[in-house]
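From: lab user (bench 3)
To: helpdesk
Subject: output format question, protein + glutamine

Hello, I'm new to running complex predictions and I'm not sure whether the block I got back is the full result or only part of it. Here's what I submitted:
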Amino acid sequence: MELKIGWLYPKLMSTYGDRGNAICLQQRAVWRGIAVNLIELDRQVDATAFENIDILVGGGAQDRQQEIVMRDLQGAKAEIIRQKIEAGMPGVFTCGSPQLLGHYYEPALGKRIEGLGILDLVSKHPGPEASRCIGNVVFEVTASKLATELKAMTGQTPIVIGFENHGGRTYLGKTEALGKVIKGYGNNGEDGTEGAFYHNAIATYAHGPLLPKNPAIADWLLQTALMQKYQDKMTLRKLDDSLALQARQAMFNRLNLTSLATTL
Ligand code: GLN
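Helpdesk reply: Thanks, we reran it on our side. This is the complete output you should expect:
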């Protein structure tokens, strides 16, 4: 078995450590004997490279880099991403990436950046004087399909822990929220929503990086990708996640959320 993990613009969109998501997926697959081809989708890469991707990973970036990426994505690459997400390809998109998948992003300075319009959401930066949304973020996954499947995997309410650092505020249209904020800002610091979930695409403001801190989500992505590719419902062998779980516990304790500690 083999999975092709596409990594969107590692050179331009690696400002916030989200490369950890790609490494985590790769390693957790390899530990289960699944071969991984990690494909770096930088600017010089042709649109055809997007065609066989099984899982797509996109990280955060600064406003200027987002604009360059958006120009490069327009056209054939955007169309393939749209088709694949609509067809159920799993993906994890953090911070700057979901802003690009929405209708538009209004940066702190300069012109509106048109997005791909795959997710029904818009993002706006209130301007260079506005304070950024920075800090640890904790939320419960409420997106119904994902919450149900994570619960089936772990037997627990799925609680995600991460770290957010964004100036833009995201407002959802019809797209389902990924979760409900317990601590932090989430999408905009106003409506209590965090991220978005569409087909099997996870959009979130949670860096951390997200997947090493929440290994069940990494396994959900792998399982969903294998299901899509091989049409075979398979259960991944359990791994020893005791260090990750201890790290989660330490952070819940520090945030006075001890009762939330879960094995996610
Ligand atoms: N540039 C965007 C913002 O500040 C995204 C930041 C990020 O990806 N962390 O909102």
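A quick orientation on your result: The first helix runs from residue 19 to 30. Let us know if anything else is unclear.
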